[in-house]
GntR family transcriptional regulator
Amino acid sequence: MTPSVDSAAVPPRGQRVRETIAQLRQRIMAGEWQVGSRIPTEPQLVEALGVGRNTVREAVRALAHAGVLECRQGSGTYVVSTDELAPVVARRLTEDRTAEVVEVRRAFEVEAARLAARRRTPEDLAALDGALDAREAAWRGGRVAEFVTADAALHTAVVAAAHNAMLAELYASIGTAIRSTVAEAMGDALTPERHVDHARLVAAIRAGDEEWAAREASAFLEPSPGA
């Protein structure tokens, strides 16, 4: 005889969707799926999460609407933000508010550099070295788009080395605005007068010198005269 199923033990559809959204968000926040990476396919998510296709589809759609995921036709679904704050910030920090982006960067990055000098681990230093090398290689190659991405990766590595989860989340929320302002500053070509050496910033963090690190982080984010 087939045992009866207690209907109360089966969560309603809305609850299943909410739980699935929470699971997807948790994996993103934990770094299992990095910003810019493609998440597993729908069948893979169905198997991994133990829910139906419609539930997965609705959860993904909700996170896409919130600006966390982006569905790209013929390519898959990608992580574009770690939380719902990013698209809100991106709308606020439009291209005509470059000065505000720089001020917010300064507030975050100077303190991040100070904390990184205090808390960096050997793994953090290795990540910083790799990011710095990639940034310099992109510069030498004259590859503007690659340089903008590598520059953002280096600054993100500094923030990660601060080991402050809230700071990292807030910084990630302005990532698109930062890349936009850097790309605008670089223009169509990487010219010598636009180069900013970040080797001293990494050296200061490695040395554990908090004040030096803070000075280096703030040096290239000084407001323009009269700003």
User: Anything to note?
Assistant: Residues 1-10 have pLDDT under 50 and may be disordered.
